[in-house]
User: Fold these one by one.
Assistant:
Number 1:
Amino acid sequence: METRDFNFYLPDKSIAQTPLENRDDSRLLVLNKETGETEHSYFYNIINFLNPGDCLVLNDTRVLPARLIGEKEDTKGKIEFLLLKRKDLDTWEALARPGKRAKPGSRFIFGNGLLYAQVINISDEGSRIIKFEYAGIFEEILDKLGQMPLPPYIKEKLEERERYQTVYSKNQGSAAAPTAGLHFTKELLRKIEEKGVKIVYITLHIGLGTFRPVKVARIEEHRMHSEFYIVDKLAADTINNTKKQCNKIIAVGTTSCRTLESIADEDGKVKPGSGWTDIFIYPGYRFKIIDSLITNFHLPESTLIMLVSAFAGRERILDTYKMAAQKGYRFFSFGDAMLIE
């Protein structure tokens, strides 16, 4: 299958630049993946599409203020690092811009000397391995100096950091937000639980794969970057019991979906544990566990649109995206939501 098969035209005006004042005021497009029928609603009505006994699975990862802007120690040239993965206490894998300034041995300074970094290696994929030097607690320094790693298509300044976090974010470690979860409020989650819907939290720390475009012509040749997940016993037991009782598993976001599909066996049963996954889901994949998916509208030719196409069908997704753009839906991270059932 060709990467270009997942391309579509989207005008710039359709790309959401800022979050809405109220998270759950975003629009909701409901797609029946079997019939292609659609319904238009608002996210605060998501509860109407969930039934008692269903299980809602959310990714509770928390985004690091992972964008560091500093200067080269000798030439004072500007540098930007995006932290992706912690290798050990003071060593990280990061993207560098401009990369030509970040050669092995190069040193950089941040916050007038609060933080120093040295490039110690370059990975096969071009990311930098950097070692930090500082006095104090790294997380506190990062919180002071770091910026939220917003995607490059967002040009507007984010006024409140927490708007790029879900209200249930807990385990810090992501380089991007699980954006399907940005639509939930604490009040909406409370109402969903009161209806009898089970809510479980799993963790997938989102890394390089989110920023890495598909550069190969044939999607089968693309390789995903591995990401760390955690699924505890309570979550696994709740999910398994839900399946046993023939109720639905609703994954919130592609990250929750990928985690569940990574750990499920062929019978759709999951086991608690932690580890790394590089699962790549594209059309032809047979889903083992999820029944419905809450997700945003994704970039052309991205692994994310390939995943939702695997779940609902490529032509159906592309037709739905075209219709959504025509009806003024907002796309990408701060955009509107879809429920595919």
Number 2:
Amino acid sequence: MTELVSITQDYIKNNVKTRHENSKKGDNGVVLVIGGSSVYHGAPLLASLAALRAGVDLVYTAVPRIIINAIRSYSPNIIALPMSDNTLTIGSANRLIKSLPKIPNTATIGMGMSISKPEALNSLVKKLRESGTKLVLDASALIPRVLTEITNSDTIITPHVGEYKRIFDDNVGITEKEIVSSVSRMAIRHKITIILKGWLNVVADEHGKVATIKRSTPAMTVGGTGDVLAGLVAALYTKMNSPFDASAMAVYFNGVAAQLAYKQVGLHMVATDLIEYLPKVMMPFDKISS
């Protein structure tokens, strides 16, 4: 039975988590971002900056050593962890897990990443899940083989239409009814939470809950907006147990930030514009408790 959820300001207000005034570093979220390659250094950077702007305390950004200097030089806020190989291998995944300064609450994996073999991704996913880290998978991490590791878990995946077809070997459809039906069916079948990105964003979980949020502006087709979303999802997911709520709220905030950026720069918007507007979008919902 499908349960349609309306993503309103009241919904957001009711689900935003409180920050305690006496909290210490790490209490408000630790995110691990794993991605990047010799071609795509910006993708994990965008996800990391988005997670920081979303209010988490710490973000570790694990990228191949070949691009580590580019990541480090962009911002002093980035804690960059060099991975030993240019592609994700079982060895580099194992070494990364051992080198983590803290166990992250969430990890977002795949943006701009090059994978040597599916077994390397599955090994990484398995070890992170065993440590208690919740997962958000995007881009290169959305391959059919990974379904064996994430089925019946609290994992969130964030495909666009092409990635959706690749991981599920299924066409999402054309009409709104077809799209919602397909995404809900796959979420229930694999017992995961899916965010389908596009002109119609659809969030669906294993319990039949579904939310639809239409894209706020066609300017969002610019590269990198999905990376921002992945970082935003991971950040919100550190503070709540519901993958559905974290996903729906992230899509909402990402869309409103894009709408504000569009009003300023129109169709000349770039992904970093969304990150700059996240505080303005999220601040009205901030809660502090004593």
Number 3:
Amino acid sequence: MACTVKRAFKYRFYPTDEQAAELARTFGCVRLVYNKALEERTRAWRSQRHRMSYADTSAALTAWKKTGELAFLNEVSSVPLQQALRHLQAAFAAFFGKRARYPSLKSRKKSRASAEYTRSAFTWRDGALTLAKMNGPLDIVWSRPLPEGAVPSTATVSKDAAGRWFVSLLCEDTVIRLEPSDKVVGLDAGVTSLVTLSTGEKVANPRHERRDRERLARAQKDMARKAKGSANREKAKAKVARVHARIADRRRDFLHKLSSRLVHENQVVVIEDLNVRNMVKNHSLARAISDAGWRELRVMLEYKAGWYGREFVVIDRWFPSTKTCSKCGTLQKDMPLNVREWECGGCGARHDRDVNAARNIVAAGLAVSACGAGVRPQRESSRTGRSATKQETQRATAGLPRL
């Protein structure tokens, strides 16, 4: 069975000097409009307890363009500016829905430089993309073809810290659903092994950052020797960014291949809900955790499972998967990180720490799925002070045969 999904296709392109200058102006205007609208919304709430909407900020943008101070906003396409306001509205919706923090200002040095063009702000003709305010099409490197007959609905142009230009085209694509499978798998994330599967397989951690650590250290040391604000420092900074980009590209490629394999091979994929933001506060493991890319792997598994008709289950982060015996269900009191193998005091079974955790994860995930509990951990506490998902998981797995 086939289904239609919206899919982004990202390509690198090489702008002319005129195109680069136009895009740089657009990036700056987008950032300014976003920050100014955020300040206006914050001021309106603090002073008047008035919650501004997208329509209010759009009207404010029209007024800004008529002032002498911000008249230069008329020189760039209006569509990316309107899209910036829509992105701000989405950020506030996520904040009020308790899914994200309060929106923050965009920094010229730290924030990603990007601009989003909708269908009315670009021309797509014979495979050539021409953005508004530009005389010619972008010189895109077509590393893979777009779906046959596809017409992009949006085009997002960005420039990374390494100086590379990219365009992401959002198109409708037809995805063939995979044949149903009877295989299920649980994933236990780790540092030595990137993930351990409930089948007993351990996927080695490529440690992309460690492989390039020496090259990165040399580039950073070279940048530190340059005077701040000098042209040589900017060149050295770009060199550091290129090393980081190389690491990120290799990590993303590996995670795409791993997530695709897991989704294609299994009908149900179960993982734990890890709080990576708090975990990286452990300074001994922060570098290794950041290099592993657990969050990125989870995102890939989730949307690919949706594409191909697979089930993706996330169990509560407080479920004691490591300390529970997967044979008899006995809960151990303590399990220090240095203990890699242990023996159950209840049944005498000997376990590999990570394999045992993965088997408990898949058992809990199947129980949660069968009982209809939410696959996303709930934030609200119940009368017992524990999350509803955790209680449901423990109740559902009480009489479940252990793997």
Number 4:
Amino acid sequence: MFSYNINHVSERETINGTPVTEEQIAAWAIEAEAGYDVAALKKRGRGRPGRGAEPSQVIALRLTADEIAALDSRAEREGKSRSEVIREALASA
């Protein structure tokens, strides 16, 4: 049987900024004890969803501190991720 000391959960424990409550941990424990449908979990796939018909590649890119600051500034201003800004810049080149 799964047991978890819910007394050690601090108020700083969050998932996506939402505090994890003792009740949520207890619910997760009950769910885990009941077991999971492995076939359904495998069906969901792993990792991020694809961007198109072909697999995409991850590449490393070295930027200076100033370039990163400019990239982050533009991304925040436009409400986009760094990757979205870079892809749009490449598409317009």
